[in-house]
Amino acid sequence: MNKIIWISLLALLLTIPAKADQLAYISKKQAKKAAKKIRKMDYVYLYCGCCASSPKELVKVKKVDYAFANYENYYEVILTYTDKTGNTVTKAIDLAYVWTNKSNKIRTIGELLKLEHDPCKRLEKVKWNKTN
Length: 132
What we know:
alpha+beta; six-stranded antiparallel β-sheet
């Protein structure tokens, strides 16, 4: 009985982090499409709705690329942006947690590309400007 409880607990713990990286590693075709779409945007929100305490961060898009993730046949989208303090940051992003306001609808990049994922908690309506 004790063994069953431990195995169940371990299985539960192994599935929790899976939500945090839903669309981080994607196909080359998906990464290419995502990079092309984000390049057309001036600003995006970075917000992890599945994370315990994730702030909404409006960032200015400077450059978008994609690269081999060094794992199996997966690729990552690499975003270079300016944050609210003026720092330039370059990092791989998860398309489930990068948001845009296209056609007056706040959606993830994953949603725009029709990629299956769960944004967990939706990004509420926010003013879409540089002062957020």
